[in-house]
Amino acid sequence: MITRGLLVTSQIDHSVREYDRTTGAFVRVAASALGDPLGLVTLNRDRQKAGLSAPRFVSILLMLLFANAGVGFAQQVNWNGTWVGNWQTGHGIQVIFAGNDLIGVYWHDGYVEETAASASADGVTMTISWPGARAVLTRDGPEAAHIVIRETGRPDTAFALTRDHS
Length: 166
Known about the structure:
This protein is α+β, with helices and mostly antiparallel strands and 166 residues long. The protein has two helices and twelve strands, in the order ββββααββββββββ. It folds into two domains: 72 residues, no CATH class; 84 residues. The chain starts with a strand and ends with a strand.
């Protein structure tokens, strides 16, 4: 519950902090890891004048902040770099991106021609197609992903990918 009357959001550490106007100190972190909260400041008495109860006010505030956090996440997903996997089996793949633009795919001992790629709305999934095949890459973390490759006349192939830093 907000007891001291002021919430301040920080674009520096992406948090919402409760401010005690009596002592002039921040007394606790009310929310964190929210994306860019746009420097929102809200006074308790303004909330009361608007007829908002404390729970409803906090719900609306957090809903707005978390909606902003989702936008921040979508903007942060980036496939930039070289992604590799499955080399231990002798059938490795190399997928190269500049940002989210596909540059090349190495598969079956050569670079694939006529590739096309598209990202999902959130950027987490990338679909790559070439004649006779389609691959779906899905991010599992900042440096990890997995791929499923469907090729005409072959069984599906699935394995982990990592971002290559060599």
